[in-house]
Design goal:
The protein has one domain: Spore Coat Polysaccharide Biosynthesis Protein SpsA, Chain A (Alpha-Beta Complex). The protein contains 8 helices and 9 strands. Strands 1, 2, 3, 4, 5, 6, 7, 8 and 9 form a 9-stranded mixed sheet that branches. It starts with a strand and ends in a 41-residue tail after the last helix.
């Protein structure tokens, strides 16, 4: 059974424990989490599990997690690599569904459908899954970071990096690795959750990323209208927020411009 390493940078958000709990709740059990603590004076309460390692590294550059993920990868032992931010989470069958696709197919990176949610309330805004295309703006072909799982060869000899403004590290990674010959494949299953601020969601204007997500949630009958920039003004379907239980605290010590919107839309 292939081992999966999850690179998990944290700036100390109180949701870190829930993020880790979503790993503990996985039906596929052969994983490890490398929690890279960046400029955080106190580690939040996290679940107690021997598969979770905490790496305290002091203060790193604010480059959308690239440096922290590089540090995590240096300590990773897994055959496959995933990434989570400290306020996002997996559905319980994420690894069970994704590992066989990566193991048995020709792709080097696989990614799935993601629910975008309000960071504070977990209200669902919509879902996102579109084929990656390195030659178009990411609003039309972007991969959301919690949705990915890839073979470790994609990072061997490669350093994740941000652009000159300290952002866009995910998009740069996808584009550069794609152009280096690595193959991508999507899985149309709703398996991950990504949280965004209300202001960031409003930044994605109707007719673009935001409308496509809302249309996906309402159903395929709305999708064509969203793609053409039309909108009927209806609200997306509401789902119950995911409630993730907490466990006790464990004792633990241990990015060139490629077409993204403004830094206002970046995740920490």
């Amino acid at each position: 059974m292939e081992k999966v390493s999850i690179l998990l940078p944290t700036v100390g958000r109180p949701t870190l424990g829930s993020t880790i709990q979503s790993l503990i709740d996985q039906t596929y059990e052969n994983w490890e989490a490398l929690v890279v603590v960046n400029n955080c004076p106190e580690i939040p309460v996290i679940p107690d599990d021997p598969r979770v390692s905490v790496l305290e590294v002091g203060a790193l550059a604010n480059n959308t997690g690239a440096s922290a993920r590089n540090i995590g990868f240096a300590a990773a032992k897994g055959d496959f690599i995933g990434t989570l931010d400290d306020d996002d989470w997996y559905e319980p069958t994420f690894l069970e569904a994704m590992v066989p696709v990566l193991r048995d197919g020709e792709a080097d990176l696989v990614y799935c459908r993601t629910t975008l949610r309000n960071r504070d309330t977990h209200k669902p805004y919509g879902t996102w899954l579109y084929p990656f295309n390195a030659d178009v703006l990411p609003k039309a072909g972007y991969i959301l970071s919690p949705s990915i799982l890839y073979k470790r060869q994609m990072l061997e000899g490669y350093q994740l990096h941000a652009d000159g403004k300290g952002r866009n590290s995910d998009w740069i990674f996808y584009v550069e690795r794609s152009r280096a010959g690595f193959k991508f494949q999507h899985v149309d299953q709703l398996l991950t959750n990504l949280c965004v601020d209300e202001g960031i969601w409003r930044y994605w204007a109707p007719g673009g990323f935001r409308a496509l997500c809302e249309a996906d949630m309402r159903g395929s009958s709305e999708l064509q209208a969203a793609r053409s920039g039309e909108s009927d003004g209806t609200e997306p379907v509401r789902e119950r927020p995911v409630v993730v239980r907490q466990r006790r605290k464990r004792a633990s010590r241990g990015d060139g411009e490629l077409g993204l919107p403004s830094a206002e839309g970046e995740q920490a």
